[in-house]
Write a structure and sequence with these properties.
Length: 262
Amino acid sequence: MTHRGGLPAAPVAFGVRAASVPALLLIVAAMSAPAVASAQAAPGEAPPPRADEPFALSGRDHVSRWAFVERRVIARAEPRAGSPRLTRLSTRTPEGTHNLVLALDRQNADGRQWVRVRLPMLPNNSTGWVPRRALGGYEKVVTHLYVDTRRRRLRLERGGRTVLRARVGVGRSRWPTPTGEFYVRNELRGFDSPAYGPVAFGTSARSAVLTDWPAGGFVGIHGTNRPGLIPGAVSHGCIRMRNREILRLARMMPIGTPLTVS
């Protein structure tokens, strides 16, 4: 088993936070295209989107949505079966937890509903389309994590309001922390090695430099037994926090949270 930061780690006990799927969301996801298209706007409101046009699932009013990958599926460049393949999404992460994706848009096309998701692949910032039936029910988050690699600072927002700030360690110049738009895939606890602290988060960010990293060089956010190195450029690309601060982050940030690294 490897830690998402790309360094060898002792076996861990996984703990993934997830919510149950509300029945109402299943009903909404199963609505037919004609029913959506025929919906009427209330007086003074914008008309609803056409069923064959993309509809944003994340990014409005500080709300984002994610879903578990319920079956192995090919992510494609466009919302149609014959579109070029980008990658294959598995139901499990390299750490053995249930895989999830950040859902960006939905669209009816090619006789089915498609969802554009953020992909855990190189090049970073890649997105692709998967059939809606390959995903579980949508879960909603109102948090967003920001990491400034130049200033070596982390900031967590909830509903657009900053609720946590912390200094961090980032990748060295030879192994920079990748920048772009990502998301938090899982939460891991129970490390035998104190080097990773009490808790770690796996992300969809991947290193383009350390290609010998296990599982393709995914970047993690974790604690440390060397707090004196923070802030600084001290890692192979992972984001390190003081233990007391990552414990605060763990209490406030659910999985599926969007991550912006600049």
